[in-house]
Design brief:
about 10% strand, about 160 residues, alpha+beta, two-stranded antiparallel ribbon, iron, single chain, disordered C terminus, metal ion binding
């Protein structure tokens, strides 16, 4: 009597037969999806050039939506400038280092660029925060016009 492949008694299978039967579906799957490990692992989506275009389009859309929102009333920043030092004033309004640029415009407002300037003299100046000044980066009181347009209510 051979132990492998033979049934004992009333239709009962041996332990080896049960293991072989349990292994059969896995062998079929492995044959359909060959890989070094025996299984086909899912690969992460890498995107490529098409995904970069989607990201740029999404960033531009976000910038347009933010610009379409009602203007936010912001009061100017009083900052001390050093003579001869170069500064970059944020023109998009997304910088966390207001009123200076921290590079946020690259992703949030790609159509905007910082205004670069060199301080002419030491001293304190008012730099625009509402971003609607006619003479950037200095404040010209444009935020007051926004205040009047909004009936004195802050937005």
């Amino acid at each position: 009597m051979e132990g492998k492949g033979r049934r004992r008694g009333k239709g009962r299978k041996t332990k080896i037969q049960e293991e072989e039967e349990a292994e059969r579906p896995l062998r079929l799957i492995r044959a359909q999806f060959p890989s070094p490990s025996g299984w086909e692992e899912p690969r992460p989506f890498r995107g490529g050039a098409g995904m970069a275009a989607v990201r740029r389009g999404a960033a531009a859309l976000v910038a347009r939506l933010r610009a379409a929102l009602s203007p936010r009333i912001s009061f100017p920043y009083r900052v001390e400038l050093k003579e001869g030092k170069k500064y970059a004033w944020c023109s998009c309004g997304h910088s966390r280092a207001q009123p200076f640029c921290d590079g946020s415009h690259r992703t949030l407002a790609p159509d905007k660029a910082p205004v670069r300037f060199t301080a002419e003299a030491d001293g304190k100046v008012w730099l625009c925060a509402c971003k609607r000044t006619r003479g950037p980066p200095r404040c010209d009181g444009s935020h007051l016009r926004l205040w009047e347009a909004g009936s004195g209510a802050r937005r």
